[in-house]
């Protein structure tokens, strides 16, 4: 899933609506008909999605027309691409800014990303002994200067009394928190999987004196990225909590979601994992690779897409929240039901929360933090 309505990114941050811009509405017109007919209530639907796919067989027997992505005039603004460097040979912490007693921002030089990356960390309430870590990933508009978890996601307030390091990575617009095959002219160089799983952990484990235990938290695009990291690196993560994501990449539903996320900010889906629907895409499909999630503590939530307590007629962004945020959340609902069915088929325990009302917006994910915490705490040995 993606992150911010057809409004500008700044306005999206202010209001808390997260989406793929007008791309979402375009996507819904070309998505499988089942989505339009899906039940918008808490039981949701198991089909339908967000943007278009191209090529490759669909695991659910459907098809997506080749080459269809979000047209340029309908894309959100394209943020400036970070400058790349060729002089970074070793991952290292090159800067540290203490923002408060429990909040620090590191600057990390990354050979994989060929640039410096901001990493914000919320520190444990009691740091007298080594503590575990949560890596928190966000949506498509991931900013270079700060994380949405800090500005609007409620993380500093919620985790203030928790004994855990919360790691929030800045940047990565449309990047899916994965390693792309090629540098993209529209959205740049993405080697986030390498950064998150190889370069960053040893640096932070040493600097923060952690106990090495890690779990994942993600919303929207970050939910899919977190689930992918969990199934691709099962030895690294004990648990996972995801909100409003899509977890397949090779059926119509998943390909549509990935292509919407990538192309909504000017990226070319052909640059991410090779041929659409091919082996590279299959390797990142959490439904196909769900067996790797066995033994983890798992919490997954989504709402229905119907206007909820944070949408009031007359508010300035009401249409954005209901039309854009509601449509995207309905698609996420369909994705989440597929994930639930897959884990049930495999006999893998997980907690699923299908909220009867709510759109694709930060306000609802803030509400999910206390619901997800028992699962995360158990995975981290804090329960």
UniProtKB/TrEMBL annotation:
Record-linked Gene3D superfamilies: alpha/beta hydrolase
Alphabetized UniProt keyword annotations: Signal
Signal sequence residues: 1-36
Compositionally biased region (Low complexity): 37-52
GO molecular function, one term: acyltransferase activity, transferring groups other than amino-acyl groups
Protein name as catalogued: Esterase family protein
Record lineage: Bacteria, Bacillati, Actinomycetota, Actinomycetes, Mycobacteriales
Any Pfam family: Esterase
UniProt region (Disordered), positions on chain: 37-84
InterPro entries: AB_hydrolase_fold, Esterase-like, Mycobacterial_A85_antigen
């Amino acid at each position: 899933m993606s992150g911010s309505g057809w409004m500008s990114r700044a306005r999206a941050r202010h209001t808390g609506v997260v989406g793929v811009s007008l791309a979402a509405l375009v996507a819904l017109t070309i998505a499988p008909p089942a989505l339009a007919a899906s039940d918008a209530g808490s039981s949701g639907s198991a089909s339908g999605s967000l943007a278009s796919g191209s090529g490759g067989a669909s695991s659910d027997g459907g098809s997506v027309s080749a080459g269809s992505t979000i047209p340029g005039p309908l894309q959100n603004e394209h943020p400036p691409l970070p400058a790349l460097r060729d002089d970074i040979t070793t991952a290292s912490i090159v800067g540290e800014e203490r923002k408060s007693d429990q909040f620090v921002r590191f600057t990390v030089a990354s050979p994989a990303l060929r640039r410096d990356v901001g990493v914000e960390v919320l520190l444990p309430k009691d740091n007298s002994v080594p503590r575990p870590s949560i890596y928190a990933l966000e949506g498509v508009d991931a900013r270079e200067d700060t994380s949405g978890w800090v500005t609007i996601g409620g993380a500093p307030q919620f985790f203030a009394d928790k004994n855990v390091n919360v790691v929030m990575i800045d940047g990565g617009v449309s990047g899916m928190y994965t390693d792309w095959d090629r540098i993209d002219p529209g959205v740049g160089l993405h080697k986030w999987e390498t950064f998150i799983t190889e370069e960053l952990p040893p640096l932070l484990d040493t600097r923060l004196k952690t106990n090495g235990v890690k779990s994942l938290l993600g919303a929207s695009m970050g939910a899919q990225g977190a689930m992918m990291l969990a199934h691709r690196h099962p030895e690294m993560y004990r648990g996972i909590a995801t909100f409003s994501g899509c977890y397949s990449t090779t059926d119509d539903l998943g390909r549509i979601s990935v292509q919407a996320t990538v192309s909504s900010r000017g990226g070319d889906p052909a640059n991410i994992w090779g041929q659409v629907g091919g082996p590279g895409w299959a390797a990142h499909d959490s439904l196909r690779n769900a067996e790797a999630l066995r033994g983890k503590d798992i919490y997954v939530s989504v709402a229905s897409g119907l206007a909820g307590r944070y949408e009031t007629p007359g508010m300035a962004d009401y249409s954005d929240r209901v039309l854009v945020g509601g449509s995207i959340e309905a698609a996420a609902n369909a994705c989440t039901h597929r994930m639930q069915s897959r884990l049930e088929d495999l006999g893998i325990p997980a907690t699923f929360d299908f909220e009867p009302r709510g759109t694709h917006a930060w306000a609802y994910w803030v509400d999910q933090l206390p619901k997800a915490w028992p699962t995360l705490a158990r995975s981290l040995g804090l329960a």
